[in-house]
Amino acid sequence: MQLTKQQRTFIVEKYFQAKSFQRVIRSFQEHFPERQSPTKMTIWRIVTRHRTEETSLNLNKGRPGRKRTGRSEENVRIVQGALTENPQISARKSGLDVTKSIFNRIITWDLKWHPYKMHARNEFLDNDLPRRLNFAQWFLQRNVRFVDDIVVGEEAAFHLNGKVHVVLHINRCAPPTCTAPRSSFQGSESESPAVTGGACTRDG
8, 32, 148, 166: which could join 56 in a potential S-S bond, CB 3.0 to 4.6 Å? Predict the structure, then answer.
């Protein structure tokens, strides 16, 4: 917290009277016990400003601290233009004359943008609600061991044209003959080549 006008004036007056940093600090503690005493460097800066600028006030001219170079207005415009042209640009391979850390800071602090990933979700139709309700009612009527005998498998085909097809398999089986659901995905002949992967899990 900055010193008030009254406190700065008090420091200047006491320094010219006592010519001692320690006496100024002790006098400051007596008159402003609720405020932390200034250091010798703070007192010297206030006195120097009074001598050179004829004022002890902190006018806060310009932006305090080290001058900002990496996140300059020009770099912000360059990064914004690059992302507008190609939203999938990488911080490491952006080709811009900025570091990875500066690139990420501009996106987060200056542009207020945040990265995200697209997720495929099933579209809800008008008849989905009664179907989900019927399934929930049917499920509640099963016995306790019913869940332990369920095997869930998920299969996805990733096409070179960017499309992703996901198939969910749910099988019920009884141990010890329980096996994972077999793959039943069949792609269209018009689809591009794809890489298929799957995973199965079983409770119990």
Answer: 8
Q: What is Dmax (Cα atoms) for the chain?
A: 98
CA distance 195 to 155: 11
Q: Is the dihedral of CA 131, 137, 141, 143 positive or negative?
A: positive
pLDDT-derived band at 134 (thresholds 50, 70, 90) equals very high
Please give the order of strands across the beta sheet that includes 150-159: 164-172, 150-159, 194-202
| SS3 category, 174 | coil
Residue 40 or 58, more confident: 40
Question: Rounded to the nearest 5 degrees, what angle is found at the Cα of 63, between the Cα atoms of 61 and 84?
Answer: 145
Which residue in this structure is represented by tokens 């007596």?
Answer: 30
Whole-angstrom distance, CA of residue 12 vs CA of residue 44: 9
**Count of H-run helices and E-run strands, the chain:** 6, 3
Return d(Cα 75, Cα 64) in angstroms, integer.
20
The pTM score is 0.35
Cα torsion for 96, 97, 101, 104, to the nearest 10°? Answer: -30
